[in-house]
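TOPIC: backbone geometry
CONTENTS: sequence, structure tokens:
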Amino acid sequence: MIALLILLVVGGMMHAAGTFATDAGTAGTLLAFGYLLLVAYFGGRVVSRLGLPQLTGYLLAGVVSGPFVLDLVTSPMTAKLRVVNGVATCILGLVAGAELNLARVRPIARTLVAIMIFGVIGTILVLTGVLYGIRSMLPIFDGLGTTETLVICGVLAVALIPQSPAIVMALISETRADGPVSQLVLAAVVVADLVVVVIYSLVAAVGSALLGAGVDVAGTALAIGWELLGSVAFGVAIGMLLGLFVRAVKDGAPLFALMVCIVVAEIGVRIHLDPLIVMLTAGIWLENFSRADASSLVHRFESAQLPVFLVWFALAGMRLDLIQLYELALPVGIIAAARALSLYGGTTLACMQTNAAAPITRYGWIGLLPQAGLSLALVVVIQSSFPAFGGFAALLMLSVLGLNQMIAPVLLRIAFVRSGEAGKKVAADFATSATSANHPP
């Protein structure tokens, strides 16, 4: 297979180049970006021939190339590519928001609310109980009392629940899925992340107070309010700006949108705004309240999105430490299984309560399985907010996340195909190549 041969050749060239450029300067960073772009693309081509999502190939390319396997892309190089993560998150938010047509979501609003209650909040409670039940397997609970143990279990449970709009968008685009299942899943993962941000902020504030960290509750509440409401307000302003540009200029709108994503990614975090919420709000405004053609902008955005997302998913794969995953195999497997079963039970119950369509009841829960963006952000937050147990918590979360990243995209692709929605979308956004266009799922 030509794609596999190219992968081997590129890997060999990267190994040879690494013997000459060992630092993570500008040259090394550009080399790493170009290498990940190539191996992710051809990795996706290889796995697609096996009937797997191209996204799985992107992630596997990162796992094999990363510091925990072949070390072709070193940790310093990865750190230098952090701007890719921010830009990809902003692009994700813009595209996901532009895909959320409120008129189409309105009929499933009751189901969406029920999923938040039974699926998301219910799973947080289940994971809290599971973590408490397996506390003897986790060294962070050694010597702790019941109150401290429950607090840590609650914080971890909230941090383990986030979904992945990025993976859902990637699979929707790759399979060209369109219909009630894909609409519900996309809306659910976006709303769920917003719900989790609020719940985590509250749980972390209470947990820090109970653990004696001396958190300023009033200050924390103000910070949360600024991050959420400020991000929404800033997002509306960005959406209005993009709408005016698209209507007035038309040509060059994708490049302008990409420039906006870069600016928001770099500046947003510095003024304590959430880039994902900012661009998600901007996308929703474009699609639902602006007279600009949001779908046209998203479609023309494809050429700018693809390179960024190829590298972003490869970088996500590089975070998976196979040795640590093996050492924590039993608790990680229990947590991942409990999370999946609880999401299945909660989502099914929500759909039954609201008389949702049969395909939604059968396949909707699978869209809540993938993890990526917000989970990775919470890994960093927990390490800084709870230094006493943050290190091990981050290890546990990354292991669960890595396991879900490998399995969930495959299950979600199967769900879109079996629901009959695959191939119904007129055009793909960013995860589709010429190969997938010529070989429908």
